[in-house]
Specification:
It is a single chain. With 253 residues, this protein is mainly alpha-helical. The chain has eleven helices and three strands, in the order ααβαααααααααββ. Strands 1-3-2 form a three-stranded mixed beta sheet. It starts with 19 loop residues before the first helix and ends in an 8-residue tail after the last strand.
């Protein structure tokens, strides 16, 4: 049997002229509204009756699904969501990596090894930026380092993802050059990776065949973030989900 639940129907008040046709229009509108609600409740009750007529296995499956949905809902309601937004090179990915190091036992050997080429390109790229900036700012380099500066500016082999003994020697010589030091002191006038000095002073470690980046090496690395990266961690019993999105213009979709 169909049992109708109490339903309140709110209709927008309209000013009808007190004519037979006006009263008839109002009556038709109310009647069609009640008919729609009755049809909806009938379909709803029929769906319940159909579900009750299913097998016990179907009922158990339905209960399990509902229980899983409720558990997921409770977990999501108790989860703090953090969305990192900002322009490119503003440090969003650095915060995400810091949370991984602090709360998720850091990076394993395989993950740290995957950053080698990024670290090498950051190191060479930062020195190329300094050499180019020195030319634009009119800062002279020592005659003994001009050949190394030319190689750093023009050789694409320096960006092969490896730091050889020759590349390391050029970086070390240029970093000791007074002109490069003066240019570095004026780095506020151009864009330079803030970990440049750290990498220049660590270049001797990079040429070791068994070199594996440390957590500090990984933390200081810079690479363009593409897509969406989620990091889940817990802090003092509270679950956090940190979402890092690319800050480049092409990633703003």
């Amino acid at each position: 049997s169909l049992s109708l639940l109490p339903v309140s129907i709110h209709t927008e008040q309209a000013s009808f002229k007190q004519t037979p046709s006006g009263r008839l229009g109002s009556f038709c509108f109310c009647f069609s509204s009640v008919l729609f609600v009755a049809q909806f409740l009938l379909a709803f009750n029929m769906g319940i009756c159909g579900a009750k007529g299913g097998s016990k296995a179907d009922s158990e499956t339905n209960r399990n699904i509902n229980r899983a949905l409720m558990d997921d809902r409770k977990r999501l309601d108790n989860e703090v969501k953090l969305l990192l937004l900002g322009a490119g090179e503003s440090g969003k990915s650095t915060i995400s990596k810091q949370m991984k190091i602090i709360h998720l036992k850091g990076f394993n050997d395989e993950e740290r090894s995957s950053y080698k080429s990024i670290i090498f390109n950051n190191t060479v790229g930062s020195m190329r930026v300094l050499v180019t900036a020195a030319q634009e700012l009119g800062i002279e380099l020592s005659d003994s380092n001009k050949t190394a500066a030319d190689r750093m500016s023009n050789s694409e082999e320096y960006f092969s993802g490896e730091i050889t003994q020759d590349i390391a020697q050029d970086i070390t010589s240029l970093w000791a050059d007074p002109g490069i030091k003066e240019c570095f002191s004026r780095s506020a006038e151009f864009q330079l990776n803030d970990s440049a000095a750290y990498y220049f002073e660590s270049v001797d470690r990079f040429i070791d065949p068994n070199y594996t980046p440390s957590e500090q090496d990984v933390l200081r690395s810079r690479a363009k973030t593409t897509g969406i990266i989620e990091t889940d961690f817990e802090c003092e019993g509270t679950s956090f989900r940190m979402v890092d999105v690319g800050g480049q213009r092409s990633e703003r979709k």
